[in-house]
Amino acid sequence: MQAVSVLLVTHDDALWQHWRQLDQAAWQPVRGKGLPDLGHWRDQGNTLVLLDSGLPNLPSWTDAQWADHFSGLKVVVATMRTSDDEGKQVLAAGASGYAHAYSPAQALGTILQTVDSGSVWLGPTLLARLLRDIDLHIPQQSNWTQGLTQREQEVAERAAKGHSNQAIAESLSITERTVRAHLSAVFEKLAVTDRLMLALKVHGIQS
Known about the structure:
The chain is α/β, with parallel strands linked by helices. It is built from 10 helices and 5 strands; from the N terminus they run βαβαβαβαβαααααα.
């Protein structure tokens, strides 16, 4: 399997050395030092980026110019101190992921792989919060249940609301292993890859 090129944008030499610990068999790291490098990366036909939120003079995450910076790219924003509020702003700005800058190299690889495959990466607390917000503000659709068993519907509905596997297992008096099995079946039947996509499907945001 060919290594995937990933642009690692940071002015911090220590962080760059940490990010370089990514598995060289899977990733081909290229260093960038500022936002202009995102445009050059896109022009070269590349898409995957890990961006240090600590770069000097970055615009606010609510600034409209992020749409141009992120256009055509799959960007994971990495921060020294994660915050659910900042994470929501980062995703609204067009990023594909939000993570701690000093996540272990193996975890960073998983994050990059997830985003490179077209999914969104979120920490568990931010994901749960977003799912609760979706459930609170958007009514569920009725047609998403077609093809699912009653128990799969029950598991899917709770997962779409942000409930953990443990909470789902306790509420339905089943094991976490059974919850995972049901979720795997639900993901396959509904053609989704994660809980966020499941929530969007349940609420009719994604067809």
